[in-house]
Amino acid sequence: LQQRSIWPPIRGREEWCLLRIVPSGTGKPTICVGLLINRLRALPGGLYIRVPKFGVGLDQHMSAVALIALAELANRWKRVVRVRLELTQIEQASDLDALGKRAAELGYRIASPQEYEHTLLTPIPASVENGARQFSRAVLKNVRKSANAGHVVKPVVDPRFSVRMRELYRETMDRTGADVADVDMTAILRSARHYPENFRVSGLFQHGLVEPETLMAFRWCGVSGRLAYDLLAASTRIDEGGGAIPMMPAIMLDIFS
Fold it and tell me: Is the pLDDT at 13 greater than 80, yes or no?
């Protein structure tokens, strides 16, 4: 998909790489496996390797060889905390059973399959008045409190907001003591501008003034197929003299609507 070209600069804590495997004495061609390497926030220096589409183009023998190579990679690379394989396009039950048995022998834990047979459509209210049954009283109270204070939530697509979004993201990460990832806010805004059916950025602006300096919180959500993406940041809660005002409830209502 065309919109995937903007993902690398957005997902700054992740790195794609290609693992090339050349089995000796098998006569098979080189096996290539795409790896998504994540740097862990909770464990600085730790790595989490994910193979999003394991099995594409691999027969039973090549899949087994790739399993062994990935296990050896994890054992030799001491920074790797976990390796996750997400199987796809393995149509024969016998191939899946054989792959599962071999994976268990190598120390992999077999997770429950993620198969979706039904899609549930839930109506989302477009206003606070229509959301009494869908949202908790606390959420609705905070949305009204934000509106009564004169704050507004608007879609954000203009590149001039990227610097302020970066400031809010850094402030949010600093509050939790987390490392600040190299996230390209300009790319995030470009995604919302060029692919509004897949991505959206909503921001809360103080006192109804839609300017970079009045942006107090934002959330970016993206959906592509069965994958969902999310990034949010906020300043410390706004205190208007009548108590703190949580900002995310109003933003989430805007995204849902």
Answer: no
Distances from the Cα of 109 to the Cαs of 50, 64, 95, 100, in angstroms?
14, 15, 17, 9
Q: Which residues pair with 31 in a beta bridge?
A: 21
Give CA–CA dist 166/172, Å, rounded.
Answer: 10
Residue matched to tokens 């933003």: 251
The overall average pLDDT reported for the chain is 78
Find, among 176, 182, 223, the residue nearest to 199 by Cα: 223
Task: Fill in the DSSP letter of residue 42.
Answer: S
Q: Count CB-CB contacts under 10 A for residue 40.
A: 15
- Judge contact between 238 and 204, C-beta under 8 A: no
Q: What digits encode the pLDDT tens for the residues 115-170?
A: 666 666 666 555 555 554 567 788 888 888 888 888 999 999 999 999 999 999 99
Closest CA to 65 of 99, 18, 35, 109: 99
Q: pTM score > 0.90 for this model?
A: no
CA-nearest of 104, 25, 28, 37 to 71 is: 104
**Which two three-digit tokens encode residue 52?**
């999003």
Give Cα 41 to chain centroid, integer Å: 14
What is the distance between the alpha carbons of residues 228 and 103, in angstroms, rounded to a whole number? 28
Tokens of 247: 């900002």
| Cα distance between the two ends of the chain | 25
